[in-house]
């Protein structure tokens, strides 16, 4: 179904999937098999071995390509293994410019694993275009961006950076995890590759770990497809089925995540125990204008600085009941966490301080529950902080 005129709400339900040719099953079967019978050596129906290809994975990849408006998509067993595959297309001596505010695991992968292959990294505050321009070298092959960044929710101008990178012969990769293709379209803004931790919004139900890349360049795709099979970080058929199911509600989920995100952000901004709220949809966000231009929704991720320090943060995070204190994001249930201790612990403390990941920084992933219940839970948790403070 390569009809580009269909809206994203329709694509989410239908992309990539057709009734099973064998039985007419409307939902893609879980082809729980590692191998495929061949009538004579080398003769097969397109499937030889499930590391290489699997009939539950194929429609998922097709759906993802259609959703992101890309020619090609590949899935991997986690977001990090998807990133690793992209970086594995570089050679020793190549240089990468990366945003300095990234998911902690991405930073760890770059500095502790990929750097060992002789690939050099420069981390820059990519919201400042000049810092990107200045970091580019003759051997720069890739610019790696998150926008909004995790966890500080800074925005990066994808179009402007794509122009800078392309004029220097480098490709641009955007980790689109926080926005999903519903709210942000990096390929249409000039990026060369989009990556997602599908563990988050794309699956949406906190029951699968998976990653993907989407791109248009056929020769780069062929290299990545080679690596998917040669390295073997592939997801299981059952997980592919679960994501195919999750995708069907992506557009309606994103809409509710964003509605709740906006309401929670506005409420927090008025609260006496909150020092500062960061949410791209608030007019107070330093890049609110870019948010309006680059995104069609602001998502459900919020970070805020609590008044106080580690002790107050601990008390607040221990007092929430509806919000689950847990790493991850993008599921239907609301999550809350402490980046310095949890998701971004693998970033050295000095760099954390520089970026702004202080002990009073709290990150929220707004789920799709009723807004009144979410606000009531936060209210109760603030009251718990207050009750100790006044004693
Ligand atoms: O966890 P995994 O599926 O391997 O994806 C890694 C990843 C990549 N990119 C972004 C923007 C991410 O947020 C993540 C994973 N993040 C969390 C677990 C988290 O709580 O932030």
Structure explained in plain terms:
- The protein is of the alpha/beta class and 391 residues long.
- It has two domains: 8-247, Aspartate Aminotransferase, domain 2, CATH 3.40.640; 250-390, Aspartate Aminotransferase, domain 1 (Alpha-Beta Complex), CATH 3.90.1150.
- It has helices at 8-14, 57-68, 79-87, 104-113, 129-135, 158-167, 180-183, 218-231, 237-247, 250-269, 288-294, 310-319, 349-355, 371-389; strands at residues 72-76, 95-99, 120-124, 140-146, 171-175, 193-197, 211-215, 274-278, 301-306, 324-325, 335-337, 361-365.
- The strands form two sheets. The protein has a seven-stranded mixed beta sheet with strand order 1-7-6-5-4-2-3, sandwiched between helices.
- Helix 12 (310-319) crosses helix 14 (371-389).
- The relative contact order is 0.12.
- Ligand P1T binds at residues 78-80, 103, 105-106, 146, 150, 175, 177, 197, 199, 209, 211, 327-329, 343.
